[in-house]
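Figure 6 in text form: structure in, sequence out.
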C-alpha cells in the first residue's frame, strides 16, 4: 500500500488508524520502530475479539455485494480475503497486550495526537482519511493531516478514494490548502490495488 523501501522500514514509523491489523506486530518482530494509534485501543482484547467475530460475516457479505468494486488478482475470492484478514487480526490479537505495555498501541484519535513535534520520521494512515470522506468533513481531514505533519516528517495516506471506489470529494481542496501553506504534496502510484483505482497514495513532506 505504501511502497515502503527496506530503508524506510528501519525508520521510526507512526501507524495512524491501524485498527486490528498485523503491521505493528510483524514490524516489531523484525526490530522495526513502530507505534500505532487508534481509538479502538481503548477496548480490551476480549472486547476487540468479540467485535471482530461479530462483524466478520457482515464485512465479507458487504464485499460480496460490492464484488465489482475490487480487483481480484492477488486475492482471488472473498473467502481468501476473509482468511487473510482473519490471520492479520489474529496476529494483532496475540500481540495487543504485550504491545500496549511496550507503548506500541496507543488509544488516541485524530485530529489530536499525543506526540511531540517530529517524533516520527514517517506517519502512515491507511483506509481511514479520505476513505470516509462522506462521514468526516473537509475540516476534519485538513486538521488531521496537519496534525500528522506536526508529529512526522513524511506523511503517507492510502488510498485517496472514498467508499464506492470514487476519488475522495475532499482531495483536491485539501491538496490546494496544503500547498498554500507550503507543504510539499505528491500523488504517487503504488503497485497495490484492491479497491479498483485505489493504487495511489498522497505523500506530504514538511
Ligand atoms: C477501516 S479501518 C482501517 C484499519 C487499517 N488501517 C487497515 O488499513 O486495515 C479504520 C480505522 O480507523 C479508526 N478510526 C476511527 N476514528 C478515528 C479517529 N478519529 N482517529 C484515528 N483513527 C480513527 C477505526 O477505529 C478503525 O480502526
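Output sequence:
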Amino acid at each position: 500500500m505504501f511502497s515502503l523501501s527496506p530503508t524506510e522500514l528501519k525508520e521510526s514509523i507512526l501507524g495512524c488508524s491501524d485498527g486490528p491489523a498485523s503491521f505493528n506486530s510483524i514490524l516489531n518482530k523484525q526490530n522495526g520502530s513502530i507505534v500505532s494509534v487508534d481509538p479502538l485501543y481503548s477496548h480490551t482484547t476480549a472486547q476487540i475479539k468479540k467485535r471482530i467475530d461479530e462483524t466478520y460475516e457482515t464485512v465479507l457479505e458487504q464485499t460480496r455485494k460490492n464484488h465489482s468494486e475490487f480487483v481480484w488478482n492477488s486475492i482471488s475470492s472473498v473467502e481468501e480475503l476473509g482468511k487473510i484478514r482473519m490471520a492479520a487480526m489474529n496476529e494483532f490479537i496475540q500481540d495487543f497486550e504485550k504491545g500496549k505495555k511496550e507503548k506500541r498501541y496507543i488509544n488516541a484519535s485524530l485530529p489530536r495526537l499525543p506526540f511531540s513535534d517530529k517524533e516520527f520520521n514517517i506517519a502512515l494512515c491507511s483506509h481511514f482519511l479520505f476513505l470516509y470522506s462522506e462521514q468526516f468533513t473537509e475540516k476534519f481531514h485538513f486538521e488531521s493531516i496537519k496534525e500528522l505533519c506536526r508529529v512526522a516528517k513524511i506523511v503517507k495516506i492510502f488510498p485517496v478514494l472514498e467508499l464506492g471506489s470514487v476519488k475522495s470529494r475532499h482531495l483536491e481542496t485539501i491538496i490546494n490548502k496544503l500547498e498554500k501553506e507550503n507543504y510539499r504534496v505528491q500523488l504517487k502510484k503504488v503497485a497495490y490495488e484492491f479497491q479498483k483505482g485505489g493504487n495511489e497514495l498522497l505523500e506530504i513532506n514538511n
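Caption detail: The chain has a mean pLDDT of 97.
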